Amino acid sequence: MATAQAVRPVSRPKLAARVKKGLRERLSNGALYVMLLPAVVYILLFAYKPMYGVLIAFKDYKMNLGILGSPWVGFANFTRLFKTPWFLITLKNTLTITRSHSATARLMRLS
Questions:
Q1: What is the pLDDT of residues 53-90, one digit of tens each?
Q2: Taking the C-alpha atoms of 94, 96, 102 and 103 in order, what is their torsion angle to the nearest 10 degrees?
Q3: What pTM does this model have?
Q4: CB atoms within 10 A of CB 12
Q5: For 3-26, what is each residue's pLDDT tens digit?
Q6: Which long-range contacts does 76-82 make (Cβ < 8 Å, 24+ apart)?
Q7: CA dist 11 to 5, 6, 14, 24, Å?
């Protein structure tokens, strides 16, 4: 009959040793992190910070209260916008101007 052998647990390095090794690897790649820093700052500054201003669309914005201090109104501003008689005229004008600018830009590229 075959005898079963005891299974030995796989030895793992202690947590402190693993942390030190990871820290050592990160410090050895410090130049790469420094090169990554401008890209991270760019993304935070030009992609995420402007989203803070989107809150104004959902608030009854008062300049003296600021964006976070102004009361929340939800979609009331959008409802008011879509109900005005000038909405369709304004939308048509906006689309017309956009098309004319696009056409002008295309013509400028061709010449």
A1: 888 999 999 999 988 899 999 999 999 999 999 999 99
A2: -170
A3: 0.51
A4: 8
A5: 667 666 656 667 788 888 888 887
A6: none
A7: 18, 15, 9, 22
